[in-house]
Specification:
The chain is built from 12 helices and no strands. The protein is an all-alpha fold and 293 residues long.
Amino acid sequence: MRGAELAGLIALVFAAVTSVVVGDTAGKLMTASGVDPFWVAWTRFGLATLVLAPFSGLRRAELPSLTDWRVVLRGVFIAAGISCILTALRTEPLANVFGAFFIGPVVAYVLAILFLGERPAPLRSLLLALGFGGVMLVVKPGFGATAGMGFALAAGTFYGAYLVMTRVVAGSYRPRFLLLSQLLLGTLMLTPFSLSGDWPSLSLPLAGLVVLSAGGSAFGNFLLVMASRRAEASLIAPLVYSQLLSAMVLGGLVFGDWPDAWALAGLALIALSGIGSLLVSQRQARLAGQGAA
């Protein structure tokens, strides 16, 4: 991957994960005020489906693909992940939740090696472990100690599996189809949970948060689909750590939760991990190119 392509990939992934954080910030504002997390997740999927379906270019010939087990499993992973993270955000600080959520890139890296046949690189593995160590510095209080953090860990696990399944199907289907499929399947899966819970009193501020939650999540995941078509899951995994930076900034601006010195040290380790992993990947690509020549 050339320098310009690499820069484009970094910008694409950062824009994607920041959009997701914006959506989850809106979700936390709702769930922290007492709104059912499953209702928030359902409205996120449902509204995004209604808005984006006319622009998806869905063809009748593609409808049977909605029952492809890979597409369905990918939809299950993202629906479960979003439901879990919204449940965690109901009681836990934004930064702590995303810290636990960052088990996801590790899960994606391991699953890509086990099931996609991607070759493990010792140095890249070490750098990924370094980044995860930085995450633990950021979220040292309460890491895994409460039910909310347990939901955050589950969300990260589901999300890591989702990233790998996205890589599996990215070459077989159009990005817009993949986005619509996860939105539609997520809506169907979450409908029973939403109907069985308490519905909030609708208001203009709540409607705005619903739109922001749905829009941020949908746009971010669409960009991740595009990124998965351009690079291996094991390369994208370290870049997703930049989501923690977005969570820190938004957590501070919206909720007043700014990082302390230990958290800043953790961010530095995460940045080092991501940059180092990219440099290793670039070096290996150059060596492979020279070998082929």
